[in-house]
DNA sequence: CGTATTTGACCCGCGC
DNA sequence: GCGCGGGTCAAATACG
């Protein structure tokens, strides 16, 4: 049986649309994990489901794929996790950094591209772009091959020694969607206060650099999600919320362990896959 | 003047 | 070994 590594990012659709395609439903689920990461997940009826070919073809195009966690949104918003590859090569001795090293403030370690620690990928719409509790400082921008849009690089400016980084780029498939990749996702400090998180992120009342790059960006620059504001409903905290008597997943960012735990617990219900306009989506539905 | 952003240069991992 | 491409640095610039 083929097992798909979770490395690529795909888009999503609404759960109601997906529910109309029950032939693409699978479950219950099995998954594999190494010591620290979820490495693959697959439906146990993968081999017996007569529609597996559909999924297989999608897998060829988009494999591997991610689950989608916001079935409510009219616009696709998905939260995903990008684990490290299953087969990690033994760590090579690193070359000496060529730039001068200050003993008091060592330069952040540069990680292998294939071995980025704690990498989290999040897709958001322009509306949600400023919804970030952390204060970020832009330190670079690069054109990306194959994409008409540049990628911007940000580091956490809340704390001097914090290694948290994020990259923001527009999806070349859907320019209305922004792909935010967090690396070193754990901050070495607590959430900044609302005041401090705003301090330094805005030069003025005008838009941040990231916001400026958004065509058609709304003037409501202070749109902040409840999560970003630190308001955590208990059901949201657990990653599930009830709607129409079903328990659905929500658009929350998960750590490695949390995501693994989600699939461990997902032994009932179905996971619905759907292909739509070049995207593959999945929605987990608890009974 | 202090802080954030811009942008060209540089570094380095990785594939060939 | 070499070149490509992605990530980071840091000087210059912008802005309040």
UniProtKB/TrEMBL annotation:
Main localization, broad class: nucleus
Record SMART domains: WRKY
Region annotation Disordered: where it falls in the sequence: 84-119
Domain called WRKY: residue spans: 125-192
Domain of life, per lineage: Eukaryota
Keywords from the UniProt entry: DNA-binding, Nucleus, Transcription, Transcription regulation
Keyword Transmembrane: no
A GO MF label: DNA-binding transcription factor activity
GO cellular component term, pick one: nucleus
Classification via Pfam families: WRKY
InterPro entries per record: WRKY_dom, WRKY_dom_sf, WRKY_plant
Localization (cell): Nucleus
Similarity comment: family membership: Belongs to the WRKY group II-e family.
Protein name: WRKY domain-containing protein
Gene source species: Hibiscus trionum
